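quick one before i forget lol
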Amino acid sequence: MLISVFIKVLIGLVFSLSSYSKIKSSNEIENDLRLILPAPLLKVGVLLVIGVEMVIASSYLLDFFYYWREVATIFLLLFFILFIFFKKRVTGTAECTCFGHGNPLNKFPIYRNSILILLTGTNLAINYKVTIEAGILLFLSAVVTFLAMNIREAVIAFKTVRKIHDHL
């Protein structure tokens, strides 16, 4: 199907660009991983993230590791979303440098990853016999993620307005 080919190429290119950017500036990903890994494991963590992204990109562009690439993609993107929330909590910024510093693809990383999860789920549904229950579960997980992001942003905006109001 043409839609499936488009999704595979899109996801393959996104992960190719991401891994290439991380190779070009590995110290940015190393600084991010410093938040969750001890110093001796930083290099291993960087290589692991870049390696997994390269395997995912290759598996979409060369069309192999059927089904497992989608599962790996969803888990990796969920990990990245959770990491962004954690980074925001620890550092106060949710800046993403996945595609190199200053790249427009770094804007709205949670939305971008959620859309990629939906596309991956769509590809799963198109190419494999996914049950209705699994499709509904995938859709609901995307909706919950989207709502959680919006509720969190609304709470932050409310607190900011409240602080401003209290100072007046």
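fyi The radius of gyration is 18 Å.
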